[in-house]
Design goal:
This protein is 0% helix and 45% strand. With 126 residues, the protein is an all-beta fold.
């Protein structure tokens, strides 16, 4: 059974940085496209960033482009989300997601991903 476990959330001042981690267990991590989504209170879950299975392509929401990055370490079965220059509009629960099984890449689509972690809270103080 594949499991995704996020960690690294917390409270940070505006302008600060955090690094979120998502460890994948149970199957061959290196074959999965991975992504991060976030959900703020009262809002729908939204795409943040994604990375192809072979690390050849990354994708970012316009709101985080230039501030966030999504590296992966296949040797550690881990995908990260590096959050820099955090803003007061970034607080949310951040979710890690994986696409298991072959399919054309729909990296920005929430419904394309079929495995999800439990989420980790990011809070930004002004």
């Amino acid at each position: 059974q594949v499991q995704l476990v996020e960690s690294g959330g917390g409270l940070v001042q505006a302008g600060g940085s955090l690094r979120l981690s998502c460890v994948v267990s149970g199957r061959k991590f290196s074959s999965f496209p991975m992504a991060w989504f976030r959900q703020a209170p009262g809002k729908e879950r939204e795409f943040v960033a994604a990375i192809s299975w072979d690390d050849s392509n990354t994708y970012y929401a316009d709101s985080v482009k230039g501030r966030f990055t999504i590296p992966r370490d296949n040797a550690k079965n881990t995908v990260y989300l590096q959050l820099n220059s955090l803003k007061t509009e970034d607080p949310a629960v951040y979710y890690c997601a994986a696409r298991v099984g072959t399919s054309s890449g729909q990296y920005y689509s929430l419904v394309w991903y079929n495995l999800w972690g439990q989420g980790t809270q990011v809070t930004v103080s002004s």
